Amino acid sequence: MEADVFRIGSGAGFSGDRLDAPGPVVDTLIAAGGPSAIIFETLGERTLALAQLARRSGGAGWEPLLELLLEPVLARCVRNGVRIIGNFGAADPAGAARLIAEIAARQGVGQARIAVVRGDDLLESAETVALLESVRCEPPLDGRPVAANLYLGARAIAEALDAGADIVVTGRVADPALALGPLVHHFGWDWDDWDRLAAGTLAGHLLECGAQVSGGYFADPGRKDVPDAHDIGFPIAEMTADGGFTITKAAGTGGCVTPATVKEQILYEVHDPAGYLTPDVVLDITGVTVEQVGPDRVAVAGARGRPRPETLKATVCYEGGWLGEGEISYAGPNAAARARLALDVLARRIPPGCAWRGDIIGVTSVFGDDAGRRLDGHAGAAGDDVRVRLAVAAPDRRSAERGAQEVLALYTCGPAGGGGVRTSVRPRINTASAYLPRAAVEARFTMLETSHA
User: Fold this and answer.
1) What is residue 19's predicted lDDT score, i.e. its pLDDT?
2) Per-residue pLDDT reduced to its tens digit, 193-237
3) Which residues share a beta bridge with 423?
4) Residues 173/120, Cβ–Cβ less than 8 Å
């Protein structure tokens, strides 16, 4: 008889992830039987600010792909008891919840109970705005805030599930909290059971980036080969009450789960292996072990935890002027020299008061620097098919447009043979961090009232 195992699958690792990924995960969870959940992690640091801007301009403030992500799996999850937890609420969790309720009604599962987690949006009330203004932001803000959100922990998610929610919609929460919440709900772990909270947080950390742990970010042909990368399977964690767990992936999919893929993801975005700070626990991974226990199955053990920080981190996004961009291609004999001349022309015509950066894609770009030192000193082979990219940071839209327009003018004014110009101008969002006292913040959930049941 199988021990009490709770399975959690990943349905998305970022906004824009593959839309066909959740289906095989849900199929695998249902086939395995037993309690389970699927998580959708769709928020990046700037995604919330973009969602706020979209909402202010009359658009939706939630994950743009929400319908396409959930429609294929929602009814099957509800009918088979697979709980859904997602931060796809972004800037408007209540709006996202109402949309999910509409989808559920269309699919004949209008009885689904949907909970909304609140408390992360610091611009939502005068009290939390005053709280934000009472602490220091780093770097100091030099623009108007457009979003300020706390990284909440797992407690409100667990409480919503305790209350009977089938679906939990959040805004900004710490990514691993999406998995820790259902684990605490299912196993009844205490909120000071640090080692189990650490194990659940580590499992969430391994799931939060979707296919990265099942070979996606790992693939490097000839060095680290990954089978059937075009059909890579998203991961599933199988957790037991003692905090031991196994990472595997959706059945019948490509990719691979090996000790190497798991180790890479364990270290992803971890600055201090002995003290990875989260809202729920301080995770220590220095004693973690991994072991291959079957095809695409890796057991993980040894996570340790310490009491959570007394402060919660907030990301503050604020207006940072405008960004104008332009690109133009040069190909054939002497193409790199013509591209360098194009950049020299652009540098002499940038509107005053603007910062800028120029790259030559095909010579140096990713390794380049804002000051252009690497490009100036680059004496490597000249490519015969290159693309000039100019980025202009301007205090106002008109200056950004003028910078981008200079790239377009290269068609006739610049070096010979330029083509394929693309330009764009958009608002620029800067970010800062702040830390607020935990006791001053209230994370809570409400159950959506629907008329579809």
Assistant:
1) 96
2) 999 999 999 999 999 999 999 999 999 999 999 999 999 999 999
3) 326
4) yes
